[in-house]
Design brief:
2 domains, globular, about 325 residues, 3-stranded antiparallel beta sheet, 5-stranded antiparallel beta sheet, Aminoglycoside 3'-phosphotransferase, Chain: A, domain 2, about 35% helix
């Protein structure tokens, strides 16, 4: 499989009129085939969706503060489209984080807050292609209520084997009763959509770029809190396998509070807890449909989307821990 993958990367280089024989190193990625050269990063999308096409269309509209790398070329066809960008200095922040000092970490979050303020003030281009139906989260700005896609998904999840229908009934009730906290959900400004430290570059002193905007879309700024907070709570689930053993949740304990100090607008929405709880439910129901329980739920990992959803409904999730902690702790 790797020989086919590298062949796809080299065809992309050839199509971009670059040296197709340049040395390439495979990089870890959940959603794409990613190859790194001295000066370029090549991403190949093997799915039949427009994620890389959307990112190529969006990139010219991003503010300079985001640091998105220069696009060298985009092309290919559905099922094998590709995007080549200029390589930026540094490593992903999550790889650097375990060895960073507390002042370095604090400075990184201060810089991240500034870049997010710029992003969250950026109007989405009107001709941005629609995001596909598997993107987090299952919420919409064009339906009568933003939670309508989520309620439809919960109804579908009730038919899955091995799930407790009562749990999903409770999820449905909770979403229905608190849906009003999201209104108005319509906005013309951008969110990143997948805000983890795996998508942030750090060169030892500064953030050099925020990457991977394939899930970016118009949305209220606090929508980015969902993925960000789950990353801080369970960082080892979001990083490459070779340093997963070094990635500890306690190293991220202060991060949400630092971001709240530097970007308070993210946390100032009325009924903020209810909002992020709906975001979390929307993310986990979508993940549950993509990864239904293959066996009795008692045999699943505690981090399976079914158990994540259950902890949110039962009030025992990381969101409840954050909600009960004193500010600045």
């Amino acid at each position: 499989m790797s020989s086919f993958a590298i062949a796809r990367a080299r065809r992309a280089l050839q199509s971009a009129f670059l040296d197709m024989d340049m040395p390439l190193r495979r990089a870890d990625s959940v959603t794409n085939e990613v190859w790194i050269a001295d000066d370029y990063v090549i991403r190949v999308n093997r799915r039949l969706d427009p994620r890389l096409r959307r990112e190529a269309a969006l990139a010219p509209h991003l503010p300079p503060e985001v640091g998105y790398p220069e696009i060298v070329a985009y092309g290919g066809k559905p099922g094998a489209d590709w995007l080549i960008v200029r390589r930026v200095p540094g490593q992903v922040l999550s790889r650097c984080w375990p060895s960073m000092t507390r002042p370095e970490r604090r400075e990184a979050i201060h810089q991240l807050a500034g870049r997010l303020r710029a992003l969250h003030s950026t109007p989405a281009p009107r001709d941005l292609p629609d995001i596909d139906s598997t993107a987090p989260q299952l919420l919409s700005s064009i339906t009568y209520s933003p939670v309508m896609p989520l309620l439809v998904a919960i109804d579908r999840a009730k038919a899955l084997p091995h799930v407790d229908r009562n749990l999903l009934d409770r999820a449905e009730q909770l979403v229905t009763e608190t849906a009003g906290c999201l209104i108005p959900f319509q906005t013309s400004t951008l969110v990143h959509g997948d805000l983890t430290f795996e998508n942030i570059m750090w060169d030892g002193q500064r953030i050099t770029a925020i990457l991977d905007f394939e899930w970016a879309r118009p949305g209220p700024p606090d929508l980015d809190l969902d993925v960000f907070l789950r990353f801080c709570a369970l960082p080892h689930l979001h990083v490459a396998a070779d340093y997963e053993h070094l990635t500890r949740a306690e190293d991220y304990r202060e991060v949400p509070w630092w971001l709240a100090e530097d970007h308070p607008q993210l946390f100032d929405f009325p009924n903020q807890f209810d909002r992020v709880r709906i975001y979390a439910i929307a993310y986990d129901v979508r993940d549950l449909l993509l990864n239904p329980p293959p066996d009795k739920v008692g045999l699943l990992s505690q981090h399976h989307p079914y158990h994540r959803l259950a902890s949110t409904i039962e009030g025992t999730s990381y969101l409840n821990a954050l909600d009960q902690a004193p500010t600045g702790s």
